[in-house]
Amino acid sequence: MNYDFANKKLITSPDRVVKQNYRLGANYYLSIIIKEDVLEVCFPVSSGSTLVCFRVRGLVSEDDFRGSGWLEKISGEVGIKIVVPPDKPGFYLGIKIRNKLIVSAYSKIFWEIPSRVRSKKTNWSETPAYYVSIGDRLPSIAFRQGDSGCFVGIGDTPDRAVLNVVHLSRIGESNLEIETDNYMSRFEEVDNKVVRDNILMSIFNSNSKFIDNEDDCIIASKSPKYYVSSGFWARDFIFWTFPVIERYDPERARVLLSLLFTKYWKHRGIHSLYMDGRILYDGFESDQLSYYFLALERAIVHNVLTPEDTVTRTSQLMDILISRKSEEYNLFSTDLNSSDDPTTYPYVTFDNVALWYSMRTYALRVKDVLLDRTYLEYSEKIKEDIMKALVKDDMFSYSSDLNGHYEFYDDPTGSLLLFPYLGFIDKESRVFKNTVEWIKSDKNEFKIEGKFGGFGNRHVNQPWIHSYATQVLSGIGDGSVLENLSMDDGLSCETIDRETGRCLTGIHFPGSSAFLVQALLYGSKENGIRKTERGIFFP
Predict the structure, then answer these.
(1) What pTM was computed for the model?
(2) Which residue in 181, 272, 373, 451 could disulfide with 231, CB within 3.0 to 4.6 Å?
(3) What H or E segment, with its residue span, contains residue 400?
(4) pLDDT of residue 37 exceeding 80
(5) Is 290 in contact with 354 (CB distance < 8 Å)?
């Protein structure tokens, strides 16, 4: 395939963030976003595979909550209580409904589409239920007064939203609080609010349950403030987010892991999918296919698949890879890179290292349980050919056509700087040191100077959070930089302002939050998450 980079268009490049510093909360059904006097409650619906959001005015404002970032369960004169149990289709607010609510709504995959809101008054609540029409569903939100606050519930019809909120009120504030506290106790050792907030973003906003059929799904972000919220990216979930979920909620991790081999298996390697697994945005991304090897290794560990079943699945991955294989080398082409953008040349070095790492991780597990060395030997052939064909001028090139043309470039979302962390090369090796020197030099047009200088890419030429996290993970950067970023009240995003450290693009992005968490906790004896040649390791 021939590529003409000049004529390629990056149509998912994000706009700059207009508002930030939202107050956030979420559980496995819904997300909560509060800004000024607006409460937004968002949840995915399988009909149309879209995110539905209700905007509610007249109930709470951001001034009702103390602190910043993720909403904590608080009460008293300087903050009202909020209780968001992990697995209920609703939550409790410690404030009475005093005014008539003003409710609007929209649905979102990539762009907001306004929806007409209707209301239904019942004798089960003083406040009407509000609903919209999405396909053959009627996503709804309902409210019910309690003794000292109100309960908020969602449903796929007004009837169910009302019944859910009645059920929540019967459970009662105190029991919901006990359920929430029991779940949150797993984070007691995480005393850094920035880390804890980003863990919660990773766990709750990267996946959900469809309110209309109770099926689980994986989502780019359950917050509509992320610009491409209602899609599935294998890279974001498997490589960046899953290790955090596995560390703190292994039961949920097993549920989500199984989805990779059911809902999302058919279109493995495709750019992005709807939440229900259909193709959303076509184009082949070899790194996203490669990460399924990591998922297969985890499937053995968690007994989601038998080792024999994973061998069958692996052969299906190899069928796709072989169709992309170079005639001369054990190297594999891609259409799009780790930023979902067209590549200058089809053989991307990071993608092939990601394949080596993922295949080797799986191969070491299979060697132990099935005494099969096939993929271990194949992964070594890939490494040998990477060093033979993709090292140019004694440093790593970014991409090549393997026919004499190549480029020097780096992309923080799939960076050459991550290679020591993946175990591909020693950080003291000559080739890697030369690569680091080039990336940090003025020869790199995406090197960004400033108080929070870092590295951008063709997708967004601003400092990426991934660039800082990558350097920490590979032992070539100072973790204090991460600790001093203001971002979005401590919540991660895609890129930041080089002088202020505040978010510029891609707020409420679980993939970025999770990668940041991995970097911040890398040296922690209690909470660390490490990738080793034998998979994910928790100290």
Answers:
(1) 0.94
(2) 272
(3) strand 399-400
(4) yes
(5) yes
